[in-house]
Amino acid sequence: MFKSFFPNPKFFFGSLILWFAVNVALWYSGGSGWGTFLGLPPNYATAELAIGVSRFWSPAFIWFYIWFFVSTAIFAIFWKIKSKNPWQAWSVWGSAFILFNIWFGVQVSVVVNAWYNPFYDLIQQMLSHGGGDVTLLYRGVMTFLYVAMVYVTAAVFNLFFVSHYVFRWRTAMNEYYTANWEKLRHIEGASQRIQEDTMRFAKTMEGLGVSLVEALMTLLAFMPVLFSLSSHVKDLPIVGEIPHALVWAAISWAVLGTGILMLVGYKLPGLEFNNQKVEAAYRKELVYGEDNPERADPLTLKELFSKVRFNYFRLYFHYAYFNLVRIWYMQLDNIYGLFVLFPSIAAGAITLGLMMQISNVFGKVRESFQYLIASWPTIIELLSIYKRLKAFESTLDS
């Protein structure tokens, strides 16, 4: 699954995490200001960024673009020397390009979040003071539209690129398995695993992988913002006053939901795996019956299908209470952000613009922490596919 596309996967992903950590440490320990050595304006790293599209070509952003490209080039050159994988250009440079696009999308969300406060404060001011200049409202909306246009364009292009990236990954797996077909052809469901499971694995990884990286980058971008906004919200319902109230409220709620969902859904990956096994056994007998009249007799098919039915009914039962808990949690989550702000709203401690900004940041951080909750059904499916392909590959390792 991985060594067909990535060079030396265990070492590759380990070095990727290490290199990412080194770059983050350097950036936040002063590297963000090193652009002055290239002629960028003094103090550009601490200058207030514009709320609009001009932010994306500000000196701070230009320096980040240069940093990211140089860092990626160093990593790619290292692996070019270290390993020779025919898909290395896609797995290294393609992965870096996807990471950059996800980071850019998160930065657009940060701009939109910064836009909430002044725009809604402007609305509140006009409503409470008998009106104002309508052109200010039009100007504020146009600022949002310009940013949204940049986001949509970048997001659509990224989806297009990710689709090609994932299909290359599937192609790499397909070439690897077909090259070893003589060793694999005798395994139960070999044709299905090469044709269908590689397709499902690549497609599922497309959604889960992008969502995971986006969640991590959203946390990196919005957690400091939520930390600073916590100074405006000191009291929480029931709990009362605690330091950094918003941060603790977001983390505790997400951890609670994740724990509950993992508890009620722990049986599902195994059932999904068994489901693939019984379906493959039933399909295999039908295929044999196409060429051999002595195979696929009614009694054998009835017995095999009864196993399919039994496993499906178990899946339906376990998914019923799992979905009940998951959907209830997501519905409560819709009002949780506003519920947390009730004491501050009642005390008049925040304005409308600040409330909208806090709600947006709080929601972004909660969604990032709730990655497992939102993705758990897909993760279950991926685990079942992974088990099948892992068992498939074990033949090559023996």
Automatic annotation (TrEMBL):
<keyword id="KW-1133">Transmembrane helix</keyword>
<feature type="transmembrane region" description="Helical">
    <location>
        <begin position="60"/>
        <end position="79"/>
    </location>
</feature>
<feature type="transmembrane region" description="Helical">
    <location>
        <begin position="12"/>
        <end position="30"/>
    </location>
</feature>
<dbReference type="InterPro" id="IPR050835">
    <property type="entry name" value="ABC_transporter_sub-D"/>
</dbReference>
<feature type="transmembrane region" description="Helical">
    <location>
        <begin position="247"/>
        <end position="266"/>
    </location>
</feature>
<keyword id="KW-0813">Transport</keyword>
<feature type="transmembrane region" description="Helical">
    <location>
        <begin position="368"/>
        <end position="386"/>
    </location>
</feature>
<dbReference type="GO" id="GO:1904680">
    <property type="term" value="F:peptide transmembrane transporter activity"/>
</dbReference>
<keyword id="KW-0812">Transmembrane</keyword>
<keyword id="KW-0472">Membrane</keyword>
<feature type="transmembrane region" description="Helical">
    <location>
        <begin position="208"/>
        <end position="227"/>
    </location>
</feature>
<dbReference type="InterPro" id="IPR009248">
    <property type="entry name" value="SbmA_BacA"/>
</dbReference>
<feature type="transmembrane region" description="Helical">
    <location>
        <begin position="136"/>
        <end position="161"/>
    </location>
</feature>
<dbReference type="Pfam" id="PF05992">
    <property type="entry name" value="SbmA_BacA"/>
</dbReference>
<dbReference type="GO" id="GO:0015833">
    <property type="term" value="P:peptide transport"/>
</dbReference>
<feature type="transmembrane region" description="Helical">
    <location>
        <begin position="91"/>
        <end position="116"/>
    </location>
</feature>
<dbReference type="GO" id="GO:0005886">
    <property type="term" value="C:plasma membrane"/>
</dbReference>
<feature type="transmembrane region" description="Helical">
    <location>
        <begin position="335"/>
        <end position="356"/>
    </location>
</feature>
<protein>
    <submittedName>
        <fullName>Microcin B17 transporter</fullName>
    </submittedName>
</protein>
